[in-house]
Write a structure and sequence with these properties.
Helix content is 46%, strand content 16%. It contains 10 helices and 5 strands; from the N terminus they run αααααααββαβαββα. The radius of gyration is 20 Å and the shape is elongated.
Length: 224
């Protein structure tokens, strides 16, 4: 049955307008993005298959073009549209944490870091540089490693903090394994960086580990 034949209150688009986007399932949200289905399959049916094939929205968003296009009905145009939507979300969150106090919007910081890091197949170490009002004045991926480790040099972090005239920093790195629990090495590195930056009066405000669909905060764990 085509979606146009469904009761109006059950159609994804009408449901979103009546009850808000949060009321929709993952498949219903993807169905609105897809707009149309295939012969014999509604957009919702196709969306369920797409989400089911990758296992989650996060995995779908991080899929490469080749894997995405292997799904019947998907092609480079849809892949490009999806990447554009994700980039708009990243930029909107970046604007939010750049225009106000980043510490007053911890969820925006989390969401931004997840969108930046969770899809990467390799480990990277990223730094958000903040001014005295805790507004983000820049962010950089400073180090890139293998699937299991990254070499992070405190001197380079200090140099970049001074370049941005930062008063504070927020660290972030990803665990491609999907396990967000900080290792002993993660904690030792964070303390070493905190000590080095303290010599030039730059505060370490937090360190996030992005893994899977979550982001663990060192500050919330009392690890800073």
């Amino acid at each position: 049955m085509a979606i146009t034949d469904w009761p109006e209150g059950e159609r994804p688009r009408e449901k979103l307008l009546q009850k808000g986007a949060a009321s929709l399932s993952d498949a219903e949200l993807v169905a609105i993005f897809l707009r149309t289905g295939l012969p014999g399959k509604s957009a919702v049916d196709l969306a369920r298959e797409l989400v089911g094939r990758f296992g989650s929205l996060a995995a779908l968003f991080s899929a490469g073009e080749k894997d995405f296009c292997l799904t019947p009905g998907m092609g480079t145009a849809k892949y490009a549209q999806l990447q554009a939507v994700l980039e708009m979300a990243r930029r909107a969150l970046q604007e939010e944490i750049s225009c106000g106090d980043a510490l007053s919007s911890p969820q925006a910081v989390r969401d931004y870091l997840r969108l930046k890091l969770q899809a990467l197949p390799h480990e990277v170490f990223m730094v958000l540089f903040l001014d005295a009002q805790n507004r983000v004045v820049g962010d950089e991926v400073l180090f890139r490693g293998t699937l299991t480790q990254t070499s992070v040099y405190p001197r380079e972090v200090v140099v970049r903090a001074l370049h941005h005239n930062a008063a504070g920093v927020i660290f972030a790195h990803n665990h491609p394994s999907g396990v967000s629990e900080p290792s002993h090495a993660d904690q030792t590195l964070t303390q070493a960086l905190k000590n080095a930056l303290g010599l030039v009066d730059v505060k370490v405000l937090d360190h996030f580990i992005v893994a899977g669909s979550g982001a663990l905060s060192f500050a919330e764990r009392g690890l800073l």
